[in-house]
Design goal:
CATH topology of chain A: MetI-like fold
Distance between the termini of chain B: 46 Å
Number of domains of chain A: 1
CATH superfamily of chain A: MetI-like
Distance between the termini of chain A: 34 Å
Largest interface: A-B, 29 and 35 residues
Number of strands of chain B: 10
Strand order of the largest sheet of chain B: 6-7-8-3-9-10
Bound molecules: adenosine-5'-diphosphate, magnesium ion
Radius of gyration of chain B: 19 Å
Oligomer: heterodimer
CATH superfamily of the largest domain in chain B: P-loop containing nucleotide triphosphate hydrolases
Number of strands of chain A: 0
Shape of chain A: globular
Strand content of chain A: under 5%
Number of helices of chain A: 10
Largest sheet of chain B: 6 strands, mixed
Radius of gyration of chain A: 24 Å
Helix content of chain B: 25-40%
Shape of chain B: globular
Number of helices of chain B: 8
Chain lengths: 287, 285
């Protein structure tokens, strides 16, 4: 009866699978080429502007508008003497600690909002209010509470990203098909198990999108915090460039910040999101 | 074999000879929306013996789904009693499983994971869970698809997984709410055959809702016809004289199908008149 399809489909899948690695390699190569061309184009425009404004017409000075090469040299210099690594790793450590707290806590609060009406009416307004507060506004409070240190910045990172994760999580729980909840309840799933076995996995794709937003908020909050406090970090390195009127350093650090933010977003979050969406059957083959 | 074991674990009341598997005694249900009250079910009395396959037919909106929701314990009747093996129903319990038009599978689990989800819910764990899931997957001829994701299956295959998930839990009553109505005609024919096989094999008691009289006559031992608003039992028909397995287009059924359709016609006419607010709109079955 159904044996015809039963035989055919696994074979078809196998054929699809063997075709994957080759296709993937070609796709990665193409992507790299595109990214290279794109970045090369941007640098070429930058250099052209530099040539015109600084060298030819001499309306700007190179100390304030450096050539791409100067920035590259500054980048290599600060990488070579270790200061860039120290700053980047210190910043990333704060970021991962802060985001590492904000992500699970945000998901937990979001699930709490979905769980009980009383929790929602108590905590919901606070979440909405704090989400409306730009994260740098937490800095004075953080400094008074924790002092000019690590913990103050991490606190700002947490406050800057937790509520966007919370809201994304709560919103996603509202989109769960009621039929799935009905089926689970029918099979005897109740209480906390409804959350761990149905609500959380069902909202995972949307939670990941929320995590991406949370990540970008965390990154901004971190730099805001670092610019306004002391201690080793990328924000501090930016301040150092300003104090020394070293525009090449300022721009080099800005490039590093862009690169790190994008890298994590593209290599970790986007990939994980694509993987999950594919597993859940949320993407069509043509996309 | 493990049937009795499961019954102990999920504390299902055991079947007692002479007591119906399922009985509805004077069930009424009224829905209120704002100030308007609508009596969906009025004094429904129905007994289903163990292993019986009962089909409920009636026009859309007569309360068929409501009956299944009540038996499943997802809603409460305003009056009357629902008994499973003589014990009153108090809420949802895996001894009464509901299957919907949509298979309601979990997209984050693969096929075998979906079947194990149900087993885990009734406290079956470890090796036994996997084995039992595979056993029931084989019953619906999908053992080769154990590791597939739900979205890789056709609509008919998904519904078969849902059936396997329910049967694996070994419910006292299987409640099916138009489970095949979203499928194409060919797939539906195959599933009619498969469901009859499964039913013979497992001896399950099935309460099956459909608005398709042919489907009801093909599958049911007994067909219960409902009136439109309020939903009452209008007539019952036995198919004991029709040999199994039956096919949707079987000639032997035609006479009974005609008879039931004749009774249903008036109710459908009432439903259409009420829904469209126009008594002149004719529908011929
Ligand atoms: N939760 C509800 N609230 C209000 N009215 C409902 C609800 N569920 C069902 N009804 C009404 O009860 C009647 C019977 O519904 P239902 O059992 O779904 O009919 P059927 O499955 O036979 O088509 C319908 O008129 C429907 O509008
Ligand atoms: Mg219905």
């Amino acid at each position: 009866m159904s044996s015809i399809t039963s035989e055919a489909i696994p074979q078809l899948q196998q054929r699809l699978n063997t075709a994957q690695p080759l296709k993937l390699a070609r796709k990665t190569g193409l992507t790299l080429l595109k990214v290279g061309l794109y970045a090369g184009g941007l640098f070429a425009i930058w250099y052209l502007v530099y040539l015109l404004m600084v060298e030819v017409f001499q309306v700007w000075i190179s100390a304030l508008f450096p050539a791409p090469v100067d920035v590259l040299v500054s980048l290599v210099d600060h990488a070579a003497d270790g200061s860039l690594w120290r700053a980047a790793s210190a910043s990333l450590a704060r970021l991962f600690i802060g985001f590492g707290i904000a992500l699970p806590a945000g998901i937990l609060i979001g699930m709490g909002l979905a769980w009980g009406r009383w929790f929602r009416s108590l905590v919901g307004p606070i979440v909405l209010g704090f989400q409306a507060l730009p994260s740098v506004c937490w800095i004075p409070l953080a400094i008074l509470w924790f002092g000019l240190n690590e913990r103050a910045i991490i606190f700002v990172v947490v406050m800057g990203s937790i509520f966007s994760v919370t809201i994304a999580t709560y919103d996603s729980t509202k989109l769960i098909p009621p039929l799935l909840l009905k089926a689970a309840s029918n099979m005897g799933v109740k209480g906390l198990a409804v959350f761990s076995r149905v609500v959380l996995p069902a909202s995972l794709p949307a939670i990941i999108s929320g995590a991406r937003q949370g990540w970008s908020f965390a990154w901004r909050s971190l730099l805001g915090g670092e610019l306004l406090t002391a201690g080793i970090g990328l924000g501090n390195l930016l301040n150092q460039g300003r104090d020394l009127t070293d525009m090449a350093l300022v721009m080099a650090v800005m490039l590093v910040i862009i690169a790190l933010g994008l890298l994590f977003d593209q290599l970790v979050i986007t990939r994980f999101e694509a993987y999950i969406r594919q597993r859940y059957g949320l993407v069509s083959r043509s996309l | 074999m493990s049937t009795t074991e499961l019954q102990v674990r999920t504390s299902q009341p055991a079947a007692t000879p002479g007591i119906p598997r399922l009985s509805l005694e004077g069930i009424s249900k009224t829905f209120r929306s704002g100030n308007t009250r609508m009596t969906a079910l009025d004094n429904i009395n129905l007994e289903v013996t163990p292993g019986e396959f009962v089909c409920l037919v009636g026009p859309s909106g007569c309360g068929k789904s409501t009956i299944l929701n009540l038996v499943a314990g997802l809603e409460e009747p305003d009056s009357g009693k629902i008994l499973i093996n003589g014990q009153p129903v108090t809420g949802p319990h895996p001894d009464r499983l509901l299957l919907f038009q949509e298979p309601a599978l979990f997209p984050w689990l693969d096929v075998i994971g979906n079947i194990e989800f149900g087993l885990k819910s009734v406290g079956i764990n470890g090796k036994e869970r996997r084995e039992r899931a595979l056993e029931y997957l084989a019953k619906v001829h999908l053992h080769k698809f154990a590791k597939f994701r739900v979205h890789q299956l056709s609509g008919g295959m998904r519904q078969r997984v849902a059936i396997a998930r329910a049967l694996a839990i070994n419910p006292q009553v299987l409640l099916m709410d138009e489970p095949f109505s979203a499928l194409d005609a060919q797939t539906r024919d195959i599933l009619h055959t498969e469901l009859q096989q499964l039913w013979t094999e497992t001896g399950k008691t099935i309460l099956f809702v459909t608005h398709n009289v042919r489907e009801a006559v093909t599958l049911g031992d007994r067909i219960v016809l409902f009136t439109y608003r309020p939903g009452r039992i209008k007539a019952e028909f036995s198919t004991a004289h029709l040999p199994r397995p039956r096919h949707l287009e079987g000639q032997a059924q035609t006479k009974l199908v005609r008879e039931i359709m004749g009774e249903l016609q008036g109710e459908v006419q009432l439903a259409v008149a009420s829904e469209y607010g126009d008594a002149r709109l004719r529908v011929d079955l």
